[in-house]
Amino acid sequence: MNGDFTLYTPTKVVFGHDVETRAGELVKAFHGTRVLIHYGGSSAERSGLLNRVEDSLRAADIPFVSLGGVVPNPRLEKVYEGVALCREFGVDFILAVGGGSVIDSAKAIAYALGEPEHDVKELYEHTRTPKACFPLGVVLTIAASGSEMSDSSVISYEDKKRGVNSDLCRPKFALMNPALTATLPAYQTAAGCSDILMHTMERYFVNGHRMELTDAIAEGLLRTVMRYAKVLRDDPENYEARAEILWAGSLSHNGLTGCGNDANDFASHRLEHELGALYDVTHGAGLTAVWGSWARYVMKNCLARFVRFATNVMQVEPGKTDEETAIKGVEAMEDFFRSIGMPTNLSELGVNPTEDEIKLLAKNCAIATNGKVGSAMPLYEADMEAIYRMAAK
Ligand code: NZQ
Ligand code: ZN
User: Fold this and answer.
1) In what order do the strands lie in the sheet with 93-98?
2) Considering only CA atoms, which residue is closest to atom 49 of ligand 1?
3) What is the pTM of this model?
Protein backbone atom coordinates (compact mmCIF):
# COMPACT_ATOMS: atom_id res chain seq x y z
CA MET A 1 0.00 0.00 0.00
CA ASN A 2 3.00 2.32 0.14
CA GLY A 3 5.16 1.68 -2.89
CA ASP A 4 7.64 -0.65 -1.18
CA PHE A 5 9.15 -3.15 -3.60
CA THR A 6 11.92 -5.63 -4.26
CA LEU A 7 13.45 -5.78 -7.72
CA TYR A 8 15.62 -8.83 -8.32
CA THR A 9 17.17 -9.14 -11.76
CA PRO A 10 20.29 -11.29 -11.37
CA THR A 11 20.58 -12.13 -15.07
CA LYS A 12 23.77 -10.98 -16.77
CA VAL A 13 22.74 -9.49 -20.12
CA VAL A 14 25.26 -9.59 -22.95
CA PHE A 15 23.73 -7.71 -25.85
CA GLY A 16 24.80 -7.07 -29.42
CA HIS A 17 26.54 -8.43 -32.48
CA ASP A 18 27.73 -12.06 -32.45
CA VAL A 19 27.28 -12.47 -28.69
CA GLU A 20 26.16 -16.09 -29.18
CA THR A 21 29.78 -16.98 -29.85
CA ARG A 22 30.47 -16.23 -26.18
CA ALA A 23 28.22 -19.04 -24.91
CA GLY A 24 31.15 -21.23 -23.79
CA GLU A 25 32.82 -18.37 -21.95
CA LEU A 26 29.61 -17.50 -20.10
CA VAL A 27 28.76 -21.10 -19.17
CA LYS A 28 32.24 -21.43 -17.73
CA ALA A 29 31.92 -18.17 -15.82
CA PHE A 30 28.82 -19.59 -14.13
CA HIS A 31 30.57 -22.87 -13.31
CA GLY A 32 28.85 -25.09 -15.87
CA THR A 33 30.95 -28.15 -16.71
CA ARG A 34 28.50 -30.46 -18.56
CA VAL A 35 25.73 -28.85 -20.57
CA LEU A 36 22.36 -29.63 -22.07
CA ILE A 37 21.75 -27.49 -25.16
CA HIS A 38 17.97 -27.24 -25.39
CA TYR A 39 16.28 -25.90 -28.53
CA GLY A 40 13.06 -25.84 -30.52
CA GLY A 41 11.93 -26.98 -33.95
CA SER A 42 14.23 -26.18 -36.82
CA SER A 43 14.95 -22.44 -36.84
CA ALA A 44 18.17 -22.60 -34.80
CA GLU A 45 19.53 -25.44 -36.94
CA ARG A 46 18.51 -23.77 -40.20
CA SER A 47 20.19 -20.47 -39.35
CA GLY A 48 23.44 -22.11 -38.29
CA LEU A 49 23.02 -20.70 -34.77
CA LEU A 50 23.15 -24.12 -33.16
CA ASN A 51 26.49 -24.86 -34.84
CA ARG A 52 27.94 -21.58 -33.63
CA VAL A 53 26.83 -22.25 -30.06
CA GLU A 54 28.22 -25.79 -30.15
CA ASP A 55 31.53 -24.49 -31.52
CA SER A 56 31.68 -22.00 -28.69
CA LEU A 57 31.22 -24.76 -26.08
CA ARG A 58 33.84 -26.94 -27.80
CA ALA A 59 36.27 -24.03 -27.80
CA ALA A 60 35.76 -23.73 -24.04
CA ASP A 61 36.23 -27.52 -23.58
CA ILE A 62 32.74 -27.99 -22.24
CA PRO A 63 31.10 -31.34 -23.05
CA PHE A 64 27.46 -31.08 -24.08
CA VAL A 65 24.45 -33.08 -25.14
CA SER A 66 21.63 -31.62 -27.24
CA LEU A 67 17.87 -31.95 -27.15
CA GLY A 68 15.63 -30.18 -29.66
CA GLY A 69 11.95 -30.48 -30.46
CA VAL A 70 10.46 -28.01 -27.97
CA VAL A 71 7.14 -26.81 -29.44
CA PRO A 72 5.40 -23.47 -28.86
CA ASN A 73 3.30 -23.91 -25.70
CA PRO A 74 5.97 -26.36 -24.51
CA ARG A 75 4.93 -29.79 -23.26
CA LEU A 76 5.73 -31.60 -20.05
CA GLU A 77 6.63 -34.79 -21.98
CA LYS A 78 9.63 -32.99 -23.50
CA VAL A 79 10.65 -31.81 -20.03
CA TYR A 80 10.74 -35.40 -18.77
CA GLU A 81 12.77 -36.42 -21.83
CA GLY A 82 15.26 -33.66 -21.06
CA VAL A 83 15.50 -34.64 -17.40
CA ALA A 84 16.31 -38.26 -18.29
CA LEU A 85 18.96 -37.15 -20.77
CA CYS A 86 20.53 -34.76 -18.28
CA ARG A 87 20.74 -37.47 -15.61
CA GLU A 88 22.29 -39.92 -18.04
CA PHE A 89 24.90 -37.37 -19.17
CA GLY A 90 25.55 -35.77 -15.76
CA VAL A 91 24.48 -32.30 -16.86
CA ASP A 92 25.04 -29.46 -14.38
CA PHE A 93 24.06 -26.48 -16.58
CA ILE A 94 21.27 -25.96 -19.12
CA LEU A 95 21.64 -23.70 -22.12
CA ALA A 96 18.37 -22.70 -23.78
CA VAL A 97 18.77 -21.67 -27.41
CA GLY A 98 15.45 -20.23 -28.52
CA GLY A 99 12.43 -18.31 -27.32
CA GLY A 100 10.05 -18.44 -24.39
CA SER A 101 8.98 -22.00 -25.08
CA VAL A 102 12.53 -23.34 -25.07
CA ILE A 103 13.51 -21.25 -22.05
CA ASP A 104 10.45 -22.34 -20.08
CA SER A 105 11.11 -25.99 -20.92
CA ALA A 106 14.73 -25.50 -19.82
CA LYS A 107 13.54 -23.94 -16.56
CA ALA A 108 11.26 -26.92 -15.93
CA ILE A 109 14.14 -29.34 -16.53
CA ALA A 110 16.31 -27.27 -14.21
CA TYR A 111 13.66 -27.44 -11.47
CA ALA A 112 13.36 -31.21 -11.92
CA LEU A 113 17.12 -31.68 -11.62
CA GLY A 114 17.20 -29.47 -8.53
CA GLU A 115 14.78 -31.70 -6.65
CA PRO A 116 15.19 -35.22 -8.05
CA GLU A 117 13.03 -36.79 -5.34
CA HIS A 118 9.91 -34.96 -6.63
CA ASP A 119 7.83 -34.93 -9.82
CA VAL A 120 8.29 -31.47 -11.37
CA LYS A 121 4.63 -31.49 -12.41
CA GLU A 122 3.70 -30.77 -8.78
CA LEU A 123 5.20 -27.29 -9.16
CA TYR A 124 2.89 -26.51 -12.07
CA GLU A 125 -0.04 -28.03 -10.18
CA HIS A 126 0.88 -25.72 -7.29
CA THR A 127 0.85 -28.56 -4.79
CA ARG A 128 4.46 -27.78 -3.91
CA THR A 129 6.72 -24.71 -4.17
CA PRO A 130 10.21 -24.97 -5.68
CA LYS A 131 13.16 -25.15 -3.31
CA ALA A 132 16.01 -25.70 -5.79
CA CYS A 133 16.83 -25.27 -9.45
CA PHE A 134 19.86 -26.05 -11.58
CA PRO A 135 21.51 -23.03 -13.26
CA LEU A 136 20.59 -22.10 -16.79
CA GLY A 137 21.64 -19.62 -19.46
CA VAL A 138 19.92 -18.35 -22.60
CA VAL A 139 20.76 -17.60 -26.21
CA LEU A 140 17.63 -15.66 -27.18
CA THR A 141 16.14 -15.91 -30.67
CA ILE A 142 12.81 -14.09 -30.32
CA ALA A 143 11.74 -10.92 -28.52
CA ALA A 144 8.51 -11.81 -26.79
CA SER A 145 8.11 -13.69 -23.52
CA GLY A 146 10.77 -11.98 -21.44
CA SER A 147 11.54 -15.41 -19.98
CA GLU A 148 15.25 -14.67 -20.42
CA MET A 149 15.04 -12.45 -17.30
CA SER A 150 11.74 -13.48 -15.72
CA ASP A 151 10.97 -15.66 -12.72
CA SER A 152 8.35 -17.57 -14.66
CA SER A 153 8.03 -20.87 -16.52
CA VAL A 154 4.84 -21.87 -18.32
CA ILE A 155 4.28 -25.50 -19.32
CA SER A 156 1.38 -27.30 -21.01
CA TYR A 157 0.16 -30.79 -20.11
CA GLU A 158 -3.12 -32.66 -20.55
CA ASP A 159 -5.52 -29.80 -21.34
CA LYS A 160 -3.80 -27.36 -19.00
CA LYS A 161 -1.28 -24.56 -19.40
CA ARG A 162 0.17 -23.56 -16.05
CA GLY A 163 2.92 -21.29 -14.78
CA VAL A 164 5.19 -21.38 -11.77
CA ASN A 165 7.00 -18.31 -10.45
CA SER A 166 10.19 -18.32 -8.43
CA ASP A 167 13.41 -16.33 -8.43
CA LEU A 168 15.25 -19.66 -8.43
CA CYS A 169 14.73 -20.07 -12.18
CA ARG A 170 15.94 -16.67 -13.31
CA PRO A 171 18.63 -17.34 -15.92
CA LYS A 172 22.27 -16.70 -15.00
CA PHE A 173 22.89 -14.99 -18.32
CA ALA A 174 21.13 -14.00 -21.52
CA LEU A 175 23.02 -13.63 -24.78
CA MET A 176 20.97 -11.28 -26.94
CA ASN A 177 21.98 -10.64 -30.53
CA PRO A 178 19.24 -8.62 -32.28
CA ALA A 179 20.34 -10.00 -35.67
CA LEU A 180 19.23 -13.49 -34.61
CA THR A 181 15.63 -12.31 -34.52
CA ALA A 182 15.66 -11.13 -38.14
CA THR A 183 14.70 -14.60 -39.43
CA LEU A 184 11.39 -14.60 -37.54
CA PRO A 185 8.22 -14.90 -39.60
CA ALA A 186 6.29 -11.58 -39.60
CA TYR A 187 3.48 -13.13 -37.54
CA GLN A 188 5.89 -14.23 -34.78
CA THR A 189 7.55 -10.80 -34.74
CA ALA A 190 4.16 -9.13 -34.34
CA ALA A 191 2.95 -11.62 -31.72
CA GLY A 192 6.19 -11.08 -29.82
CA CYS A 193 5.78 -7.29 -29.89
CA SER A 194 2.22 -7.71 -28.63
CA ASP A 195 3.34 -9.94 -25.76
CA ILE A 196 5.94 -7.33 -24.81
CA LEU A 197 3.31 -4.59 -24.78
CA MET A 198 1.05 -6.78 -22.69
CA HIS A 199 3.68 -7.51 -20.05
CA THR A 200 3.89 -3.80 -19.33
CA MET A 201 0.15 -3.16 -19.69
CA GLU A 202 -0.56 -5.95 -17.19
CA ARG A 203 1.47 -3.90 -14.71
CA TYR A 204 0.07 -0.52 -15.85
CA PHE A 205 -3.68 -1.07 -15.55
CA VAL A 206 -3.81 -1.43 -11.80
CA ASN A 207 -5.65 0.08 -8.90
CA GLY A 208 -3.76 1.34 -5.89
CA HIS A 209 -0.31 2.82 -5.66
CA ARG A 210 1.78 3.59 -8.73
CA MET A 211 5.12 5.45 -8.95
CA GLU A 212 5.51 8.31 -11.40
CA LEU A 213 8.92 7.08 -12.53
CA THR A 214 7.56 3.59 -13.13
CA ASP A 215 4.73 5.11 -15.19
CA ALA A 216 7.20 7.11 -17.25
CA ILE A 217 9.32 4.01 -17.92
CA ALA A 218 6.22 1.98 -18.81
CA GLU A 219 4.81 4.63 -21.13
CA GLY A 220 8.17 5.10 -22.85
CA LEU A 221 8.50 1.37 -23.34
CA LEU A 222 4.99 1.05 -24.80
CA ARG A 223 5.50 3.92 -27.25
CA THR A 224 8.90 2.57 -28.28
CA VAL A 225 7.59 -0.94 -28.93
CA MET A 226 4.66 0.33 -31.02
CA ARG A 227 6.97 2.56 -33.04
CA TYR A 228 9.52 -0.15 -33.82
CA ALA A 229 6.94 -2.89 -34.33
CA LYS A 230 5.73 -0.87 -37.30
CA VAL A 231 9.28 -0.38 -38.54
CA LEU A 232 9.77 -4.17 -38.45
CA ARG A 233 6.46 -4.78 -40.24
CA ASP A 234 7.84 -2.76 -43.17
CA ASP A 235 11.55 -3.54 -42.81
CA PRO A 236 12.07 -6.86 -40.97
CA GLU A 237 15.87 -6.79 -41.29
CA ASN A 238 16.26 -3.42 -39.58
CA TYR A 239 18.90 -4.07 -36.89
CA GLU A 240 18.16 -0.94 -34.84
CA ALA A 241 14.49 -1.82 -34.64
CA ARG A 242 15.29 -5.45 -33.75
CA ALA A 243 17.56 -4.17 -30.97
CA GLU A 244 14.95 -1.80 -29.53
CA ILE A 245 12.33 -4.53 -29.47
CA LEU A 246 14.68 -7.16 -28.06
CA TRP A 247 15.71 -4.99 -25.12
CA ALA A 248 12.12 -3.89 -24.51
CA GLY A 249 11.12 -7.57 -24.29
CA SER A 250 13.44 -8.16 -21.37
CA LEU A 251 12.64 -4.95 -19.51
CA SER A 252 8.92 -5.46 -19.93
CA HIS A 253 8.87 -8.67 -17.91
CA ASN A 254 11.78 -8.49 -15.47
CA GLY A 255 9.73 -6.52 -12.95
CA LEU A 256 10.96 -3.03 -13.80
CA THR A 257 7.66 -1.71 -15.16
CA GLY A 258 5.76 -2.74 -12.05
CA CYS A 259 8.06 -1.35 -9.35
CA GLY A 260 6.00 0.26 -6.62
CA ASN A 261 2.67 -1.33 -7.62
CA ASP A 262 0.45 -2.72 -4.89
CA ALA A 263 -0.47 -5.52 -7.30
CA ASN A 264 -0.24 -6.38 -10.99
CA ASP A 265 -3.22 -7.33 -13.13
CA PHE A 266 -2.33 -10.24 -15.45
CA ALA A 267 -5.97 -11.13 -16.13
CA SER A 268 -5.48 -11.02 -19.91
CA HIS A 269 -2.59 -13.45 -19.54
CA ARG A 270 -4.63 -15.85 -17.45
CA LEU A 271 -7.51 -15.66 -19.94
CA GLU A 272 -5.05 -16.34 -22.77
CA HIS A 273 -3.42 -19.29 -21.07
CA GLU A 274 -6.73 -21.17 -21.22
CA LEU A 275 -6.99 -20.40 -24.95
CA GLY A 276 -3.46 -21.75 -25.36
CA ALA A 277 -4.38 -24.87 -23.41
CA LEU A 278 -7.55 -25.58 -25.39
CA TYR A 279 -6.64 -24.39 -28.90
CA ASP A 280 -2.82 -24.20 -28.89
CA VAL A 281 -2.83 -20.60 -30.16
CA THR A 282 0.23 -18.33 -30.41
CA HIS A 283 0.54 -16.62 -27.02
CA GLY A 284 0.87 -13.00 -28.23
CA ALA A 285 -2.04 -13.37 -30.67
CA GLY A 286 -4.21 -14.91 -27.98
CA LEU A 287 -3.50 -11.88 -25.80
CA THR A 288 -4.52 -9.31 -28.42
CA ALA A 289 -7.68 -11.34 -29.15
CA VAL A 290 -8.96 -10.88 -25.59
CA TRP A 291 -7.41 -7.58 -24.56
CA GLY A 292 -10.02 -5.19 -26.04
CA SER A 293 -12.88 -7.15 -24.48
CA TRP A 294 -11.09 -7.25 -21.14
CA ALA A 295 -10.41 -3.49 -21.35
CA ARG A 296 -14.04 -2.59 -22.07
CA TYR A 297 -15.23 -4.88 -19.28
CA VAL A 298 -12.94 -3.50 -16.55
CA MET A 299 -12.52 0.11 -17.70
CA LYS A 300 -15.03 1.80 -15.36
CA ASN A 301 -13.28 0.23 -12.38
CA CYS A 302 -9.92 1.74 -13.32
CA LEU A 303 -10.93 4.77 -15.35
CA ALA A 304 -8.12 7.16 -14.42
CA ARG A 305 -5.52 4.67 -15.63
CA PHE A 306 -7.31 4.18 -18.95
CA VAL A 307 -7.53 7.95 -19.44
CA ARG A 308 -3.83 8.32 -18.70
CA PHE A 309 -3.04 5.49 -21.12
CA ALA A 310 -5.16 7.09 -23.86
CA THR A 311 -3.43 10.42 -23.40
CA ASN A 312 0.19 9.51 -22.66
CA VAL A 313 0.60 6.27 -24.62
CA MET A 314 -1.90 6.32 -27.48
CA GLN A 315 -1.80 10.14 -27.62
CA VAL A 316 -5.44 10.50 -28.64
CA GLU A 317 -7.39 13.76 -28.49
CA PRO A 318 -9.44 13.85 -25.29
CA GLY A 319 -13.15 13.02 -25.68
CA LYS A 320 -16.00 14.91 -24.03
CA THR A 321 -15.94 12.65 -20.99
CA ASP A 322 -13.32 10.48 -19.33
CA GLU A 323 -15.18 7.38 -20.56
CA GLU A 324 -14.98 8.65 -24.12
CA THR A 325 -11.25 9.35 -23.82
CA ALA A 326 -10.65 5.92 -22.32
CA ILE A 327 -12.56 4.17 -25.11
CA LYS A 328 -10.59 6.13 -27.72
CA GLY A 329 -7.38 4.81 -26.15
CA VAL A 330 -8.59 1.21 -26.29
CA GLU A 331 -9.72 1.61 -29.90
CA ALA A 332 -6.36 3.14 -30.83
CA MET A 333 -4.56 0.16 -29.32
CA GLU A 334 -6.82 -2.25 -31.21
CA ASP A 335 -6.09 -0.31 -34.43
CA PHE A 336 -2.41 -0.75 -33.68
CA PHE A 337 -2.79 -4.50 -33.13
CA ARG A 338 -4.65 -4.80 -36.45
CA SER A 339 -1.99 -2.70 -38.19
CA ILE A 340 0.63 -5.33 -37.38
CA GLY A 341 -1.64 -8.22 -38.31
CA MET A 342 -2.79 -9.27 -34.85
CA PRO A 343 -6.36 -10.39 -34.09
CA THR A 344 -8.64 -8.31 -31.87
CA ASN A 345 -11.25 -10.99 -31.24
CA LEU A 346 -11.44 -14.76 -31.11
CA SER A 347 -12.74 -15.35 -34.61
CA GLU A 348 -9.84 -13.38 -36.07
CA LEU A 349 -7.65 -15.65 -33.95
CA GLY A 350 -9.27 -18.60 -35.72
CA VAL A 351 -11.16 -19.75 -32.64
CA ASN A 352 -14.95 -20.03 -32.58
CA PRO A 353 -15.85 -21.46 -29.18
CA THR A 354 -19.23 -23.05 -28.51
CA GLU A 355 -21.23 -21.96 -25.46
CA ASP A 356 -19.97 -25.04 -23.63
CA GLU A 357 -16.38 -24.17 -24.51
CA ILE A 358 -16.81 -20.60 -23.25
CA LYS A 359 -18.03 -21.99 -19.94
CA LEU A 360 -15.15 -24.47 -19.85
CA LEU A 361 -12.57 -21.73 -20.56
CA ALA A 362 -13.96 -19.63 -17.71
CA LYS A 363 -14.14 -22.58 -15.36
CA ASN A 364 -10.55 -23.59 -16.08
CA CYS A 365 -9.36 -19.99 -15.73
CA ALA A 366 -11.10 -19.73 -12.37
CA ILE A 367 -9.50 -22.97 -11.21
CA ALA A 368 -6.05 -21.85 -12.36
CA THR A 369 -6.40 -18.50 -10.55
CA ASN A 370 -7.95 -19.86 -7.35
CA GLY A 371 -11.17 -18.16 -8.30
CA LYS A 372 -10.03 -14.58 -8.75
CA VAL A 373 -7.56 -12.55 -10.85
CA GLY A 374 -6.84 -8.90 -11.65
CA SER A 375 -6.14 -5.53 -10.12
CA ALA A 376 -7.81 -3.15 -12.60
CA MET A 377 -10.91 -5.10 -11.61
CA PRO A 378 -10.92 -8.39 -9.71
CA LEU A 379 -12.47 -10.97 -12.03
CA TYR A 380 -14.41 -14.04 -10.93
CA GLU A 381 -15.63 -16.94 -13.03
CA ALA A 382 -18.77 -15.12 -14.21
CA ASP A 383 -16.65 -12.13 -15.30
CA MET A 384 -14.21 -14.39 -17.14
CA GLU A 385 -17.12 -16.03 -18.93
CA ALA A 386 -18.52 -12.63 -19.91
CA ILE A 387 -15.16 -11.50 -21.31
CA TYR A 388 -14.68 -14.69 -23.34
CA ARG A 389 -18.21 -14.20 -24.68
CA MET A 390 -17.50 -10.57 -25.62
CA ALA A 391 -14.27 -11.65 -27.37
CA ALA A 392 -16.14 -14.36 -29.25
CA LYS A 393 -18.80 -12.05 -30.64
O1 NZQ B 1 10.81 -23.95 -32.82
P2 NZQ B 1 11.51 -23.08 -33.79
O3 NZQ B 1 11.78 -23.72 -35.09
O4 NZQ B 1 12.70 -22.40 -33.19
O5 NZQ B 1 10.45 -21.92 -34.17
C6 NZQ B 1 10.00 -20.96 -33.23
C7 NZQ B 1 8.51 -21.11 -32.88
O8 NZQ B 1 7.81 -21.71 -33.93
C9 NZQ B 1 10.04 -19.61 -33.90
N10 NZQ B 1 11.31 -18.93 -33.77
C11 NZQ B 1 11.93 -18.56 -32.62
N12 NZQ B 1 13.04 -17.87 -32.90
C13 NZQ B 1 13.15 -17.82 -34.25
C14 NZQ B 1 12.03 -18.50 -34.80
N15 NZQ B 1 11.85 -18.62 -36.14
C16 NZQ B 1 12.76 -18.05 -36.95
N17 NZQ B 1 13.82 -17.35 -36.48
C18 NZQ B 1 14.04 -17.20 -35.15
N19 NZQ B 1 15.08 -16.48 -34.71
O20 NZQ B 1 9.04 -18.84 -33.24
C21 NZQ B 1 8.01 -19.69 -32.80
C22 NZQ B 1 7.59 -19.27 -31.42
O23 NZQ B 1 8.60 -19.55 -30.46
P24 NZQ B 1 8.26 -19.51 -28.93
O25 NZQ B 1 9.47 -19.81 -28.15
O26 NZQ B 1 7.04 -20.34 -28.67
O27 NZQ B 1 7.84 -17.96 -28.74
P28 NZQ B 1 7.72 -17.05 -27.48
O29 NZQ B 1 9.06 -16.52 -27.10
O30 NZQ B 1 6.64 -16.12 -27.78
O31 NZQ B 1 7.31 -18.03 -26.27
C32 NZQ B 1 5.96 -18.37 -26.06
C33 NZQ B 1 5.82 -19.18 -24.80
O34 NZQ B 1 6.28 -18.44 -23.67
C35 NZQ B 1 5.24 -18.40 -22.68
C36 NZQ B 1 4.00 -18.44 -23.51
O37 NZQ B 1 2.86 -18.75 -22.76
C38 NZQ B 1 4.35 -19.49 -24.53
O39 NZQ B 1 4.21 -20.79 -23.98
N40 NZQ B 1 5.42 -17.25 -21.80
C41 NZQ B 1 6.43 -17.31 -20.93
C42 NZQ B 1 6.68 -16.31 -20.03
C43 NZQ B 1 7.79 -16.39 -19.07
N44 NZQ B 1 8.39 -17.55 -18.92
O45 NZQ B 1 8.14 -15.41 -18.40
C46 NZQ B 1 5.82 -15.10 -19.97
C47 NZQ B 1 4.89 -14.96 -21.11
O48 NZQ B 1 3.80 -14.20 -20.71
C49 NZQ B 1 4.42 -16.22 -21.71
O50 NZQ B 1 3.32 -16.76 -20.99
ZN1 ZN C 1 3.11 -13.01 -22.15
Assistant:
1) 12-15, 173-176, 136-140, 93-98, 35-39, 64-67
2) 145
3) 0.98
